[in-house]
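Fold sample X.
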Amino acid sequence: MNLNLYGHDGQWLMVDCGVTFYNPLQPTTQTLTAEVQAADPAFISQQRERLCAIIITHAHEDHIGALPYLWPRLQAPVYCTPFAAEILRRKIAHSGLSADMPIIEIPPGGTCQCGPFVVNWLNITHSIPEPQALLITTAAGKVFHTADWKMDAAPILGRAFKPQVFKRLAKQGITAMVCDSTNALKSGFSLSETACYQALLTVIQPFKRRVVVTGFSSNIGRLISLGRIAKQSGRYLALFGRAMENMVGAARQCGFWPEDIPLIANEHVGFLPPEEVLVVATGSQGEPKAALTKLAEDRHRQLLLEPDDLVIFSAMLIPGNEMLISRMVDKLKAKKVQVLQQADTLLPIHVSGHPNQGELDLLYRYVQPEIAVPVHGEAAHMQANAQVAKLAGVRQQLLGQNGDLFILAPQRRCVAGFAHAGRVAINN
């Protein structure tokens, strides 16, 4: 549920505007809930004349999902890459909201000026097309905003991580590095998306029954891997779930989907021999309305799972979703369907799109910021990120909570509780 504000010279720059799912609206109660939620934009919407631009770093829901719903309260131009723009336009068309939103496409690696902010977009590796880090330059200093990232030397989609791009930042004198903390509790390095492809091939190719893989619809590289695995194992690939179909449609529109990976119409899947079926389905987090839940409950119109079919979870378990996932797994096992989760195997059937401690250490040493500002994680993750930064030679670490103001120049400090940081429900 990312929503970041950078302020300078009386103006604000917003970076990302995302949603979160299935959480209490207020930390003190478990009863007031909403399926989809966004950060409360009251602080900036009350002074929207000072908001010069909104920048979207990539098209994941926790970075872009709230924008069509909150934009009428913000009214600022939106800058994003072509793939994120395609996803955003599809969201607007689906919701019927924000049809007059000005969307300015910036090529990956491009530059734009928004009020007093000069923004350089930097290619980075992550689990979606065209992920961007940002170098935000003002007269008071420079901020390197990593957004979501990892160091992938062999991605399925896009170019490999290039250290030299980030080593050059050290020569520019970076005031602060605002850095992803998602995997800061994990030692070593994250595995490549290519390692995940090889693991899934190892599991699927010799299997003699239907295979259903569930994962995040936005991971186009993972979907391409499964398309190649389908061809190598003599299977037909089908997509179950509106979000999955929409993402692949956007990937095709932007030239990311290989022409030699065909998709079969969903209504044909149920008539194929089991050993010729590979389905990719939404619902890895146990979402009640998703395709996998319908399969587990025999409510899917195109396919009925049978004993000894295999369901592979090629996705992380997002904290808070344990009960939903457990219930769905129980339903699958009650049907005598085989279930393979990451905890069941040493093979990397899922790899994260976020950096472990080894990658964090390297990037801090490449960039050499004066200040580390860990974000995107719970308190323990951000504390671990700060410790990595300290050991990597970053002199100051600023830790805070949602709504805190980090003053980076001229006197560095954190003002607690500067802005209200509640949540609002999104009706989609």
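Fold sample Y, listed below.
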Amino acid sequence: MRILIAAAGSRGDVAPYTGLGAALRHAGHHVAVATTEPFAPLVRDAGLDFRGLPADPRGHGGATDRRELMRTAAAFITELGQGFADAAADAPDLLLLSTTTAPLGWHVAEATGTPSIGVYLQPTAPTGDFPPVVTGSRSLGRPANRLAGRFALRMTDRVYEQAVAKLRRRLQLPPESAAATRRQRERANWPVLHGFSTALVPRPADWRPGLEVVGNWWPHHDPSGRLPAGLEDFLTAGPRPVLIGFGSMAAGDGERLSEIAVRALRRAGLRGILQSGSAGLAADGDDVLTVGDVPHALLFPRLAAVVHHAGAGTSAAALRAGVPAVPVPVGADQPFWAGRLAALGAATDPVPFRSLTAERLADALDRVVRRQGHTLAAARAAQHMATEDGAARTLETVAGG
């Protein structure tokens, strides 16, 4: 079967699909991933075909207030929609659509008659169990959570409206709003597989049929890969260090964050690894090392704790390794995942990014490393996650579809 996976956003919004794609390829399918140009190496390194989408999320950063975030998101989505039809031009047999690409992919599927399945990294369907992931982690009560969830979907429809109108014209489809298409898919119980662990988000009982939580899809990495020699030397030279990194977040804030990180580590008496990321974290010293991109699966089991932005992928990777965390959410769905980690006991209470100081970080590190409760909770979650196989569940769905 010829399968096209479509995903867009930050690295964390794309990397999990390289592992899923590799599993599908191993099962005998021909797999291509449609995403933006910066992630072409990730796709090709996994042995998958790359299809370019003509937008770059890095060009839409810097928004601070909600209205500006809506405008920049709409601009990114509109760029994305311009090339979506081209990515599917080679007539795949199945479209696998991420949270970001589904509201565009539905129209391509309609125009071409191609079956499609959602492969989401975030829970977007309204539920009484929790509020929308974009509003944080604090429950509003079951009725209000559901109401807020429906409102969040309407706001998402607005972001996609212009892109959908342009895409439908290009595909020679009659006009239809983004909201109408979404409601049609919901009524048809369009299948969505959610690639996160039930340790973090059990399937809500009030979800409609067709929505399933299958377990994580892990980014592809070479099973024979090794950590860089300098990092390996640092790991073996003393007690387990703490990793501090913010992934694709906090661009341009590296100098301030690096200073906070080093001061906090030394105040807590811990060795540390700074992962440069988009922020450009950097520091030198006998007790601190700076690294670039390193597979989480190889590094995280060797750590005492992880300080991270609480992106879905990093949150899951730390849990999988049984390593406790200090979550410092920056925005988007990160406060939601940070709250989930803390509720499990596998992390300290979140430290909001704008409130981060060396003193607050040192105190959180002291708690998470020197008290066993967080480590034990992370280990229990790791045992639960080891029983899940998101790729295998997805293969079953694809084979049965």
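Sample Y note: Confidence is low (pLDDT under 50) at residues 59-64.
Also: The first helix runs from residue 11 to 26.
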